[in-house]
Design a protein that fits this description.
The complex is a heterodimer. By secondary structure, chain A is α+β, with helices and mostly antiparallel strands. Helix content of chain A is about 20%, strand content about 35%. Chain A has a six-stranded mixed beta sheet. In chain A, a hairpin with a 2-residue loop joins strand 1 and strand 2. In chain A, helix 2 packs across helix 7. The termini of chain A are far apart. Chain B has one domain: Beta Barrel (OB fold (Dihydrolipoamide Acetyltransferase, E2P)). Classes of the chains: A alpha+beta, B alpha+beta.
Chain lengths: ~375, ~130
C-alpha cells in the first residue's frame, strides 16, 4: 500500500485526539473527541474549524486565462469580478463531471481553482491537456497552501480578532487577501456546510500556530475542531454534492440538478453540445433528496426500489444530526422525482419506506 | 465507571451480559460504543423471539457505520429497552446502564461459563489494538 498523504496539521489532529482514517489517500481526522453529532451541532449553532488542506489548488495565469476557464467549465466565469468566486464544474464532452470546483478571480489574467483532493492530479492534467490553444498557463499549487474552514454563525466573530480585514465587508462567495494572525492569506467567504463562514488559504509552515489561534479565539464561543464525518453530514443537510458519490464521470451536470451552474448561452465549452441536447430532449433521471420515513438509515450505495423494482441507488445517505431525520440523495427515473413520491430503500435486507422531499433539507436563516 | 465491569460476561463481538437468577441483560461494551461513535438507531427484536447463542438479534447504527448485535447466550427475549427508540445515545453515555438493549431468559446456563471475564475481555481488546 502506498504511503498516505498528510496535511501539515497531521500531528495537531493526533494531539487533539482525532480519529484518523484513509480518505482518498489522505490521512485525515474523521472526528475528534466530541464526536460527529456535537461537531455538526457546533457548526449549526456556533462555529467549527476544519482542516481541508487536502483540497487541491490550481492557478491559471495568462492573457487568455478566462478563455481557457470558459472552455473548461460550465458556469460563466466571465461574470466574475476581481475578488469573486463561483461554484462550477469541469466537464467531459459527454457533459459529465471531471470535478466540481470553485473558481476564484484574482485578476482578469489570474484565476485560482479549488478542486477536490482526490481529483487534483486528474484535474490538473485535464486543464493542461486542453490548454494548448490558449495563451494561459496552469500550475498545481496545492502544496503551497494549508486550507482551513471556519464555519458557523459565529465564524465571523471568531476570525475577526485575528485579522485587520473587515470580514463583514466580504460578501458571500467573495474573497480578499489579508493577514490572519500576521500570516498572509486568501480569505474567502465560502464553505461546504450550509452555514456562513470562511475558508482561508495560507503557507503550510504556519499551520499549527494559526489553527491554534483560531481555536483560542473560538473557545469562548463554543468552537469545536470538526472532522470529515461532520463535514459530510453538514454538506448533505445542505444538499451540496459530493464528487465520487453524487456526481462523477457518469452523471451530467443537469442530471445532478445543477442547472444553475450550467450556462449554455455563455459560448462554447467542453460538454456544451451534449448538455444542450439533454436539456432539449429532457432528462431521463435526476438527483433527488429523500427522507426515510421508517426507522433506519439508508446509507451510500443501498439500492432504491419503486413498485418492487430496482430503480436507482442511494448516492449519499446518513442520519442528519441537526434535522434529526434520516436523509439521502439518489438518482431516480424522471417520472418518479416529484415531491412526495414514495419508494423503498433496501437496508441490508429490510425494505424501508422513503419519500422524495424538497431540498435543500436544511437552509440557514439569513 | 470501570471500562469493563467485573460483574459482567463478555463476547469477542463486544457484547456484555449481566446474569441474575437465570435472566440476562445484554448490551454493548464501552469499547464498542467508542468505536461506533454517536449511536442514532438501535434495531431490536420482539419480546418472545428465541435465539441461539451468537445469532444476530439486532443492529446498532451510528452516524458513520452500523454493526450487527449478537446474543451471547441462547434464550428468549423477555424485554427490550424501549427508551432506546427515542434516546439511542444512551448506548454511548451509559453502555452498561441505561443503554442496555435486551433482557433474555437464558435457556442454557452453561453457555455463560464460556464467555469472557472482564480481564479476559480487556486482554482481548488490547491484543486487537496491537494488530
Amino acid at each position: 500500500m502506498s504511503q498516505l498523504k498528510k496535511t501539515a496539521l497531521n500531528n495537531t489532529h493526533r494531539k487533539l485526539g482525532g480519529r484518523m482514517i484513509d480518505f482518498g489517500g489522505w490521512d485525515m481526522p474523521v472526528q475528534y473527541a466530541a464526536g460527529t453529532i456535537e461537531e455538526h451541532m457546533a457548526v449549526r449553532t456556533a462555529v467549527g474549524l476544519f482542516d481541508v488542506s487536502h483540497m487541491g489548488e490550481i492557478e491559471i495565469r495568462g492573457p487568455q486565462a478566462l478563455d481557457l476557464i470558459q472552455r473548461l467549465t460550465t458556469n460563466d466565469a466571465g461574470k466574475l469580478n476581481d475578488g469573486q468566486a463561483q461554484y462550477s464544474a469541469l466537464t467531459y464532452p459527454e457533459g459529465t463531471f471531471v470535478d466540481d470546483i470553485l473558481v476564484h478571480r484574482f485578476a482578469p489574467d489570474h484565476y485560482f481553482l479549488c478542486v477536490n483532493a482526490s481529483n487534483t492530479d486528474k484535474d490538473y492534467d485535464w486543464v493542461c491537456d486542453n490548454a494548448g490553444d490558449f495563451d494561459a498557463e496552469a500550475s498545481n499549487v496545492s502544496a503551497n497552501y494549508t486550507q482551513l474552514a471556519i464555519q458557523g454563525p459565529k465564524a465571523l466573530e471568531v476570525l475577526q480578532p485575528l485579522t485587520g480585514v473587515d470580514l463583514g465587508a466580504i460578501k458571500y462567495y467573495w474573497f480578499t487577501r489579508g493577514d490572519v494572525d500576521g500570516v498572509p492569506a486568501i480569505i474567502a467567504r465560502t464553505g461546504y456546510t450550509g452555514e456562513d463562514g470562511f475558508e482561508i488559504y495560507f503557507d503550510p509552515n504556519e499551520s499549527e500556530r494559526t489553527w491554534n489561534r483560531v481555536l483560542e479565539s473560538g473557545s469562548p464561543r463554543g468552537i469545536l475542531p470538526c472532522g470529515l464525518a461532520a463535514r459530510n453530514t453538514l454538506r448533505l443537510e445542505a444538499k451540496m454534492a459530493l464528487y465520487g458519490n453524487d456526481i462523477d464521470n457518469t452523471t451530467t451536470v443537469l442530471e445532478a440538478d445543477l442547472g444553475w451552474i450550467c450556462k449554455l448561452n455563455k459560448g462554447d465549452f467542453i460538454g456544451r453540445d451534449r448538455l444542450a441536447k439533454q436539456k432539449e430532449e429532457g432528462l431521463t433521471r435526476k438527483l433527488i433528496g429523500f427522507e426515510v420515513t421508517d426507522k433506519g438509515i439508508a446509507r451510500d450505495h443501498y439500492p432504491i426500489f419503486i413498485n418492487g423494482r430496482e430503480a436507482g441507488v442511494v448516492t449519499s445517505g446518513s442520519h442528519a444530526p441537526y434535522l434529526k431525520k434520516n436523509i439521502g440523495l439518489g438518482y431516480l427515473p424522471i417520472e418518479h422525482t416529484g415531491i412526495g413520491t414514495e419508494f423503498e430503500v433496501d437496508v441490508r435486507g429490510r425494505r424501508l419506506a422513503a419519500q422524495v422531499v424538497q431540498t435543500p433539507f436544511y437552509k440557514r436563516s439569513k | 465507571m470501570a471500562a469493563y465491569p467485573d460483574d459482567l460476561h463478555y463476547t469477542k463481538d463486544h457484547e456484555w451480559i449481566r446474569v441474575t437468577d437465570g435472566a440476562g441483560t445484554v448490551g454493548i461494551t464501552d469499547f464498542a460504543q467508542e468505536q461506533l461513535g454517536d449511536v442514532v438507531h438501535v434495531q431490536l427484536p420482539r419480546v418472545g423471539e428465541k435465539f441461539e447463542a451468537h445469532a444476530t438479534f439486532g443492529e446498532v447504527e451510528s452516524v458513520k457505520t452500523f454493526s450487527e448485535l449478537y446474543i451471547p447466550v441462547s434464550g428468549e427475549i423477555t424485554e427490550i429497552n424501549q427508551s432506546l427508540a427515542d434516546a439511542p445515545e444512551l448506548v454511548n453515555s451509559s453502555p452498561y446502564g441505561d443503554g442496555w438493549m435486551i433482557k433474555v431468559k437464558i435457556s442454557k446456563a452453561s453457555e455463560v461459563d464460556s464467555l469472557l471475564s472482564s480481564s479476559e475481555y480487556e486482554d482481548f481488546i488490547e491484543s486487537q489494538k496491537e494488530e
